[in-house]
Amino acid sequence: MMRRxxxxxxxxxxxxxxxxxxxxxxxxxxxxxxxxxxxSEWLAQSHDYSPQRLRTxxxxxxxxxxxxxxxxxxxxxxxxxxxxxxxxxxxxxRVQVLDEVIAKALSQDLAVILDVHPSDDxxxxxxxxxxxxxxxxxxWNQIATYYAKTDPERVxxxxxxxxxxxxxRWAGIQQTLVSAIRRDAPMHTIIVTCGEYSxxxxxxxxxxxxxxxxxxxxHYYNPHIFTHQGASWGEGYWxxxxxVPFPGTSELVAAAIAKQxxxxxxxxxxxxGLERWDAQHVAGEIQFVADWxxxxxxxxxxxxxxxxxxxxxxxxxxxxxxAVRTALEQNKIGWTMWDYQGGFGVVTKNNGTTAEDEGVxxxxxxxxx
Length: 369
What we know:
Helix content is 47%, strand content 14%. It is an alpha/beta fold.
């Protein structure tokens, strides 16, 4: 009798999950976000948002190239400064550029993530000022109202990139923003995230978000000592790292340790070698995240992952990219690589010529052209 009861309860929960998934279009629309690319350092992460630069740094031809390489969506990082207009947005040239990009992407059968991607200072204000939160909600009211006319099947609203706000304060802010967007764009799918930097450990502490038609996002750069070697931002010791290997066994890491004069960097490299990072290690972490999403019954996407290419060994970089991409796909998690032409890029631009990295394309599961 007890076994029959347990079976009935299990079956009931399974049926409820199926009903919940079918009730929200987010599950269906997440299929448009299977393998994408970030268009970074263009509409965000710059000090120059002049229309001339916006029309030339990345172009509509680049959007077409993204589609031809095999990507099915593009994540547009957008600084709130893009929307600082004196008059109506449809008469503001910066917004006009953004509108042209969205239209071009949709014409190329690329779905579009509109990712609000401000400076660290902007996010620090959200962490400490309720007035800043009110202003941010008002901005999202404007964005949602303006872009409510776009195709809700293909245009997604991402509330904020890597909030850098404490987990529980961010949970309250995010819920307020979800409600604000819903009032003005009731049909569009909203992409939410956890507090801090959207890492897997931040995701594990994320309180549930009320409402439906929501996709949860996380970023994956583990281990940062490999993916961010040589980076001039973030942890101070990253800048001195060179040729950190992947996989990261103690034997392979020994050469990088021997070249280091900074004791803290030597210590972090020693830890990295002892942790024995390899494709199986990556797969185990992503499996945890996938299981977390299943327990929450939420659609999940990873819309940033990548390796800083300036100081990493190219073959090790490709091994890491393939390991992460494979693990995400095995767990049916859509992904968006970071990035198109920046320091983590899939293309290199030089004197008007764009060269595709065939190795990266193969690591991402595409056929190099």
